Amino acid sequence: MPQDFDLYERELWAGRAPSYERGFARLTQYMVGPLLDAAGVGGGTRLLDVGTGPGIVSAAAIRRGAEVSALDADPEMAETARKNVPGLDVRVAVLPDVPFEDAAFGAVAGNFVINHVGAPDLALAALRRVLRPAGWLALSCWAMPAAAGVLTAVREAIDEAGVPVPDDIPESPFMEYGEPAAFRRLVMEAGFTDVSVEEMTWEHVVDPEYWWETGALSKVGTNGVIIGRQDAATVARIKVAYDGVITRYATPDGKIALPAHALLASAAR
């Protein structure tokens, strides 16, 4: 399963950097400040930004005065981060491969990346290796099972349209860890101390047509993959269902406010 999932993830993200930056990156950026706070990132901190994507975490850390290196599994994502954060040291590697020396960093942060690896326990061990003694780890992930809102609106529409999830799409090995006690236990078993897990909630306010474009038609994430495989008539049927689902999230100004629910883990080396 882990190998199949990692292969799926590489195929899933290939060529998706621009679409991700336009859509889901705007959703996940809410967690950047809390993530860096949890990792104790400030002036002079040597930080590894794991799963940097378009470089949003790295840019925010640099503004705090940190010295940052970054890592991403997708070459195009890494190139996007270099473009957005000039001079950023970005390596391309798939966790648990972390191409840095032991104890190289005072902090490690990963924003919604641990749920995208085939072997979360091995990934955590690798991140612990590159942390200095008393260094801090901070990781965010989506809470599971996903509550109604930002992760479910498009999936509800897919289900209402009668479109099944294809058999060849694997379930994330992280699914069992998407609640506070299990996530805390996973981090502790990797050898970290002072482990805490905080639940975070917010509303992602967005234009409904923009969310359809970037969260459904962009082929980003599993929902995007499912919709991307359908013919035009089926996509239109899903869109009708989507228009109905989002009415319960409508705001007076014509946008939608989608509830988001995540977990933030912090721990010491």
Automatic annotation (TrEMBL):
Keywords, alphabetical: Methyltransferase, Transferase
GO MF annotations in UniProt: S-adenosylmethionine-dependent methyltransferase activity
Pfam families: Methyltransf_11
Domain Methyltransferase type, residue spans: 48-138
Coiled coil regions in record: none
Record's keyword annotation contains Protein biosynthesis: no
Domain of life: Bacteria
GO biological process, one term: methylation
Gene3D superfamilies xrefs: Vaccinia Virus protein VP39
PANTHER family named in the record: 2-METHOXY-6-POLYPRENYL-1,4-BENZOQUINOL METHYLASE, MITOCHONDRIAL, METHYLTRANSFERASE
Name of the protein this chain belongs to: SAM-dependent methyltransferase
Species annotation: Actinomadura rubrisoli
